[in-house]
Amino acid sequence: MVIKKCLKSVDVFLCESCNFNCSKKSNFDAHLNTAKHKMITNDNKKNAKENEKKFRCVNCDKGYKHASGLSRHMKACNIINIEPVKTDEVVSELIKQNHEFKVLIVEQQKENHTLHQKILEVAKEGKTIHNSQTNNQINNFNLSVFLNEECKNAVNLIDFISSLRLSLKDVESMGKLGYVEGMGNILVKALNDLDVNERPIHCTDIKRETVYVKDKDKWELDSHNKIKLKHSLFKLEERNLEMLPIWQEENPDFNKMDTKENSDYINISLNSLGSENELEKEKQTNKIIKNVLKGVTIDKGTDKIVK
Predict the structure, then answer these.
(1) Is the separation of the CB atoms in 262 and 166 below 8 Å?
(2) pTM of this prediction?
(3) What is residue 210's three-state secondary structure?
């Protein structure tokens, strides 16, 4: 505030904001142009403006001088108040739920231990495994010869998953396409890049989803619960999550609200582990397996992969 006073016929110029006074107007004008005066008076104006509207809407940040004005505005404001998603907490919770689901799969694996042992014994003896319902050999196709001789150099399933070279494009596709299609595309593409005899998975009956898996250098019939295939999907989930920090480095604005990077990050985080509901997650896993088996089904008559 600038005040001009007259004392004993002498003009005194006083700047209360800066606690400055003088008797010459030229000196006073010079003071008004100083950096100190401008800084102090600008701060005062800024604080005054900020204090004018101290009541703000939590939805749209519109300010009001009085609480009554804000109250009327809140009744009409139709912007939905969406609290920021704590993405790191979401990912941690999904990982925890994924771990619990893995424990369930391990328990199922123990229950099928006896069945696995019988299958191993049959595989070691080199016998042709018959269909449990028809009990007939599959035409002239010798499954044992195909697996143990033609496909003897096939890679183990767990080694196949570990060797996959995921890209940031794969991570982003998971966010765009969703868990089922994203995971399925990664597996199908990787299997198609291998020769038929090098693949770790072969399906002999797509309807009954009869599938053989290369594990520990031996071909085995996966159980009706598809324990080995489900375990490989869990490993692929972990591989995909390992790419997330790299994606974050390439997209530094991922933690800034209302940015494309933040939206992509949330979608990737949520879709990388599938549904948090146990039954829904089981359906998603079975759908992925069915889609993958379509690309590795053997033509019983020709010994070739059905395209």
Answers:
(1) no
(2) 0.52
(3) strand
